[in-house]
Specification:
This protein folds into three domains: about 160 residues, PAS domain (Beta-Lactamase); about 120 residues, Helix Hairpins, CATH 1.10.287; about 160 residues, Histidine kinase-like ATPase, C-terminal domain (Heat Shock Protein 90), CATH 3.30.565.10. It has about 475 residues and is of the alpha+beta class. Strand 10 and strand 11 form a beta hairpin. The chain is built from ten helices and eleven strands. The strands form three sheets. Strands 6-8-9-11-10 form a five-stranded mixed β-sheet. Strands 1-4-3-2 form a four-stranded antiparallel β-sheet.
Length: about 475
């Protein structure tokens, strides 16, 4: 609104100045034309009267000629006509109002026009007349200019009124146009700038104009797009950095846990071997009773279970370097099912294997792949305590995601699906986290899936999990071909 007000004021002032100058020039021109008309009329009247005076003077004498001049004065009420002697004394009744210097052209037969007096003044016109004895006289016609001033004032007043009307109309038009073409767009631009300052980058300003303000609005919209994209990039980078920091912290915790696990495993290994050895001696002692031998067998089994847990801790603690070996994924899957067959039969679980077609060689050692599959299968068995179905499938496929060793190339996929209790999204997200388990105390360590995940990643693969609470879980292991 301020810009529109300034433009309107500037336009009004400009129009007033132009019309004031035009009025002054017009008044001056009309005044000049008015005086020229008066002088022309006075010269015509003076020449006619001078010709008559000259004839009367010659035929009837001076007195009759002067009476003729007086009679002309009474007839022309708006002017004052006198007979004057240009060369006469200044105090004579026939002396001219103009100075002798101004009357010099009369000697050459030229008429003289002079404006004399203060205020409005009087326009004097002198027409030379030669009378008897070639004496030079003149007819003086005095025309007051008061009427001229009144006419000029009225003309100036009319012009001023029309000027004010024109200025008001122009000001109204300029105000409306300025408000619509400048005031409203600028107000919207200001509001858009304030919104950008508040961080509201999703607002867009589409001005219907195609002028500079419209271009500015388009540039502001492009700036919003750029700022929004930059903010999204910063947000993603910040989230990535936070995730990286969390990963570093998690890796640091895992490193500490691995060190502790390695120490504990080494410390427990020797006592377990001693206990297992003594249990073996009891079992081989012929003098020992059946109950003692049965208890010794239980001790041996529990020692093996503890040794297996210790071995998992060691595998988790020292993720060794990848060994350049290959294995047949179908043979490993078959061997794994044979290994866990007693557990499957005990829990009433029906298992089947789809070996697929073609070569299924993976770049992983047989024992390591068997450990991975065994850990995943045992996890599936724990999810089906009341029986169910277990399906293993080995196939060649395209990697569902790029990034690890496969990078979208052909890979070998081993999927293990169960019909157990399943997991919700939050539990599935933590499935490979070390020491995380949903089993009761004493039924699991939470290391099986973590160890399997680590072995697969060490060999350039990855594991995907798809699960839904109450509808089972499917683990799919993707490995690069050998």
């Amino acid at each position: 609104m301020k810009v529109a007000r300034k433009l309107t004021l500037a336009l009004v002032v400009g129009i007033l100045l132009v019309h004031a100058a035009s009025l002054a020039i017009r008044i001056q021109r009309e005044q000049s034309l008015f005086q020229e008309d008066i002088a022309r009329d006075s010269r015509v009247l003076g020449r006619a009267l001078g010709h008559a005076v000259e004839q009367v003077w010659a035929t009837r004498g001076e007195a009759e000629a002067l009476r003729l001049v007086e009679h002309a004065t009474t007839r022309e009420s708006h002017v004052d006509i006198r007979w004057i002697w240009p060369a006469g004394p200044r105090d004579d009744e026939h002396a001219a109002a103009a100075s002798p210097e101004q009357l010099q052209p009369l000697r050459l037969g030229h008429s003289v026009v002079a404006r004399l007096g203060e205020g409005h003044g009087v326009l004097y016109t002198y027409v030379p007349v030669r009378v008897a004895d070639d004496r030079l006289g003149a007819v003086e016609i005095a025309d007051p200019l008061a009427d001229e001033s009144g006419y000029m004032m009225q003309s100036a007043l009319n012009t001023s009124l029309w000027t004010l009307v024109l200025v008001g109309l122009c000001a109204a038009i300029a105000w409306v146009l300025g408000f619509r073409l400048i005031g409203q767009p600028v107000s919207r631009l200001v509001e858009q700038a304030r919104a950008i300052g508040r961080g509201e980058l999703d607002r867009r300003l589409a001005l219907p104009t195609r002028d500079e303000l419209g271009e500015l609005a388009c540039e502001m919209d492009r700036m919003c797009d750029g700022l929004q994209a930059a903010r999204e990039r910063v947000t993603k980078e910040t989230q990535s950095r936070i995730a990286a920091i969390e990963q570093l912290r998690h890796a640091d915790r895992l490193s500490t846990v691995g060190t502790l696990a390695s120490g504990v495993a080494h410390e427990l290994g020797t006592p377990l071997n001693v206990i297992d050895g003594h249990a073996q001696l009891i079992r081989e002692d012929g003098d020992a009773g059946d109950m003692a031998k049965d208890n010794a067998l239980i001790i041996t089994r529990q020692c093996k279970a503890m040794s297996r847990i210790i071995r998992q801790l060691l595998d988790f603690a020292r993720r060794g370097a990848r060994r350049e070996e290959t294995a047949d994924a179908r043979a490993v899957a078959e061997e794994t099912l044979l290994l866990v067959h007693p557990l499957l039969r005990k829990q009433g679980i029906e298992a089947n294997l789809d070996e697929g077609n073609g070569e299924m060689i993976v770049g992983m050692a047989f024992a390591q792949l068997q450990q991975v599959l065994t850990n995943v299968v045992v996890n599936a068995l724990h999810a089906m305590p009341d029986g169910g179905e277990l399906a293993l499938r080995v196939s060649r496929c395209r990697s569902p995601r790029g990034g690890n060793a496969s990078d979208g190339d052909d890979c070998i996929a081993v999927s293990i699906a169960d019909t157990g209790a399943g997991m919700d999204a939050e539990t599935a997200a933590r499935a490979f986290e070390p020491f995380f388990t949903t089993k009761d105390v004493g039924q699991g360590t939470g290391l099986g899936l973590s160890v399997a995940h680590g072995i697969v990643e060490d060999h350039g693969g990855f594991i995907d999990v798809a699960s839904e609470a109450g509808r089972g879980t499917t683990f799919t292991i993707y490995l690069p071909p050998g």
